[in-house]
Amino acid sequence: MKKPLLDVIFASEKRKNVLLLLQDGPRGMKYILDQLETTRQALLPHVRILEDYHLITDSMDTYELTDIGKLIVNKMTHLVSITEVLDTDIDFWGTRKLDFLPSPLLNRINELGKCRVISPPVTDIFELDKDITDTSYKSRSLSMIAASLHPGYPHLFNELAHKGINIRAIFSKSVFDSMKSNYSTYLEELIKNESFNLYVYSEKMDFLAFVYNDFNFLMRMLKVDGTTDNKYILCKNPPTLRWTNDFFEYYLKDSTPITEL
């Protein structure tokens, strides 16, 4: 009796990688060997298994996916790309609340790529992320959604807005009230600046902060038990840009613009 297909595909890294290499079309054996950095002797048994399960065919030492192989690899690619995101730090992802993400965006979480999990030392927890701040001055725009506002952001917003960098900020009601109480001068000046666009989201936010510019994307999430820590993810734009734009627009559509205090 033959093994289940899932065992054939995922029980061997070599077989999985051969299938992924062939998703863009036929490949010669030499190309496959070079890409996988292996030998013909080591790879041939795996190739024979893939052929035996009608996933690939061989013609003159050139291999390609069968119709069944194409069907499986089309679905497999999405799954593999999701696992690559989570594999960066499965303990981090496994302890975060993700239900604030709408289903279509959660299903597209593979678009984030291999993000870094940042865990600042205690001495730096009150510092803004350097990658975000440095690249914001080079960006055309900065967008933020915040249920918890770092005290350094009002000053950053003020400097960027005066440089003509477009800023879109969505605050939770509590963050907006805190800004009015503690940073009223900054807020009044910012609202008058054409480069600054402020919105308030009145519903519950089950995450802490979401920030992106032309170069980087940062997100701080709650832990599954509702508590917080100092960890966050940092990803590179533009690969994530469509995902980050769609996430921002999802919250923007239910937010109220603020044009005066």
TrEMBL record:
It comes from the Archaea. Residues 125-253 form the Methanogenesis regulatory protein FilR1 middle domain. InterPro entries: ArsR-like_HTH (IPR011991), FilR1_middle_dom (IPR013561), Tscrpt_reg_HTH_AF0396-typ3 (IPR016490), WH-like_DNA-bd_sf (IPR036388), WH_DNA-bd_sf (IPR036390). This is Transcriptional regulator. It comes from Methanolobus halotolerans.
